[in-house]
Amino acid sequence: MITAANQITLSVLIVITIALTVSSVPADLLLLGGLTVLLVTGVVDTASALEGFANPGLATVAVLFVVAEGLKQTGGMNFVGAKLLGEPKTLRKGQARVMFPVAILSAFLNNTPVVAMMVPVIGDWAKKFRLSVSHLFLPLSYATILGGLCTLIGTSTTLVIDGKIRQHVQLVEVGGQMVEQSLPGFSMFELSWVGLPCAIVGLGYLLLFSKKLLPDRRPAISPLADPREYTVEMIVEDHPGIVGKTIEAAGLRHLPSLYLMEIDRGGHILPAVSSDARLEAGDRLIFVGIVESIVDLQKIAGLSPATNQVFKLDSPRSDRVLIEAVVSDSFPNQKQSIRESRFRSRYNAAVIAVARNGERLNVKIGDIQLQPGDTLLLETHESFLEVHRNSRDFFLVSRVEGYTPPRHELAWFSQLVLLAMVIVVATGLLDMLKASLVAASMMVLSGCCKGIEARRSIDWGVLLVIGAGLGIGEAMSSSETDILLADGVISLAGKNPYLILAVLYATVMVLTNLITAKAAAVLILPIVFSTAEQLSIDPMPLLVGITIAAAASFATPVGYQTNLMVFGPGGYKSSDYLRLGGPLSLIVFGISMAIIPFVWHF
Description:
With 602 residues, the chain is an alpha+beta fold. The chain has helices spanning 4-22, 27-40, 46-50, 56-74, 78-85, 91-106, 111-128, 137-148, 156-167, 192-213, 291-298, 343-347, 383-388, 411-426, 432-445, 451-457, 460-478, 481-493, 497-515, 517-535, 540-551, 561-565, 574-599, and strands at residues 169-174, 177-182, 230-236, 258-265, 268-271, 284-289, 303-305, 320-327, 349-355, 375-381, 394-399.
């Protein structure tokens, strides 16, 4: 008999599913709205409604954002662009260089920060080698999803499901008596039995067919052209990653919108620099380019601003920002060089680069005589904005967004923290939550990322989706709606566990592409537990099936965050996802159905 609580719960589920599919309202707001209705109507009590926000998987996801931020702020991920991407000769080789390293990374890092870090790296790399980003960004997203299927920490969806599994208590017979026992959850590499074959076959499919199935599209979101050409001087440090390399091998030849004009080597000028010229410690490199490229140049390990003024500023580099300031006609030190005017002492700011109406300034930064209208790129403390915004010395003062001086000296430490976290989880010394908490704490305490950066790195929308979705799952359980839906699944598939696995997998596969992966997973979990209990079978095969199905979201841009993140930069249409991702979803489905029943027995 269908009760009033069943009716309310089913109505909320239907409305949420439809709204997530057809409306533009964010998933976190819709799920929170649905949970509010269930709470107000008394279907679920307050403690149960909020239980999802205490889920260990949710906490682990939040903490892993901080770990990824530490890698980002130290440049710990830059080795991917410099070492692994290399110089492809064909598009297919370029795709392989993108997908295979990223798939490995995403097995040990949450997918979302991996894509967030890799999109700008791959975008610049594609410009250098004239590769279409529309042929790279969607395979990038799919590769992170496929790699994430291989481990417990590969996706936040898996962590959420694992946390819920460990909280579930079932009755088992021990010595002739029925006792309560918690499910063990997934080990670090348990999902690799099915995830690894899916990843290998899926990546092969993408390499063979993505060029044919994906059109060459122009990005819908393109950076605005910047007419200002800056002259900037960088010095080559005694760094093994750059000294002794050719200009080409160091990645300095094809920088987008940036031109290496000359090298000053001990007072000897090398003009028209060849790609085969080798870099030496102490070389002064003179570049001309737009502000975005100058910002990227500051992030290359082994290069530092040639002016030593940046090391004499009051604040540490990690607290500084880049500022653009236009010299006014009342600037007090006109016709004096930057060095003679004691610019750094006067303004507590170091001049990194100068732009003058497209003119190339063939002198060292310190010797440039500033003129009204010159645009200066300054490294300074954020307080410069407030102090000099209305100063008569400058016409315009604005911050260059998205720049924090990278802490390259800590890159090795951030990589070591990540490796240690993976090892202690894989060996069982600590569970995932404890290991990630220790890793995040080490990132903050060591200075790999600051406290404010750690807080900003957390995607609160993702956490709200998880917490609210788990609360709705509790409402399904307390109202016995999960039993009602489980009866429907059993009647549809009979009592054949293999058919039930296929039906549940197919249901989640459709839902994950319509209402997001986490929402699909947390809404189906109660049905899985009820179905297994009614048939008296081990729930693990079903749980593995819905975990893979929920995480393998390929057919729509809205199903998973990484798909949506590349939608604009890649210039895609929704049909591109269905054309390339639809067959990939079926491939993963087929492999999962073939492997799961033989590894995890009913």
